[in-house]
Amino acid sequence: MFSNIGWSEMMILLVAALVILGPERLPGAVRWTTGALRQARDYASGATSQLKQELGPEFDDLRKPLAELNELRGMSPRAVVTKHLLGGDDKVLRDLESAVPDKKQLFGTSSGMPGTSSTPAPQKSLEHNERPPVDYDAT
What is the C-alpha separation between 88 and 81, in angstroms, rounded? Predict the structure, then answer.
């Protein structure tokens, strides 16, 4: 639950709690917080186990598509092509990458497109009280 909070953030929270609550009320607040977190965790695990008991084997049928969805969420386009079209063997893609020259070598520019340069065109500064142009297609 607190995996993304480091020790420095915990120390800041502890110092802030010490200043706000004071040394006499801080132990009680810590006890109350840990008890509330433990109770919330118990409610969540109890609800999961109750749902699992009521649904029985259908619970696993519900979890299977969710697990597949989580697996697909982390896939890149290359991984999808490799898994579904190439049966998990990406040797064809690696061979294709090694056969195609780098874009910079192919076109001789750093952007990879013919006739383009890597430095942007200088822009004209606006005059006093001049409004910038509006691109209605972009807004």
Answer: 8
At which residue do the structure tokens 């598509």 appear? 65
Length of the chain: 139
Residues in Cβ contact with 75 at an 8 Å cutoff, skipping those fewer than 6 apart: 83
- For residue 68, the one-letter residue type is E
For the stretch 40-52, pLDDT in tens is 999 988 888 887 7
User: Beta-carbon neighbour count of residue 65 at 10 Å?
Assistant: 9
Q: Is 16 exposed, middle or buried (0-12, 13-18, 19+ CB in 10 A)?
A: exposed
DSSP-assigned letter for residue 54: H
- What lies within 8 Å, CB to CB, of 132 at 6+ separation is 126
pTM for the structure as a whole:
0.36
Considering Cα of 45, then 48, then 51, then 52, what sign does the dihedral take? negative
Q: Which of 25, 30, 35 is CA-nearest to residue 13?
A: 30
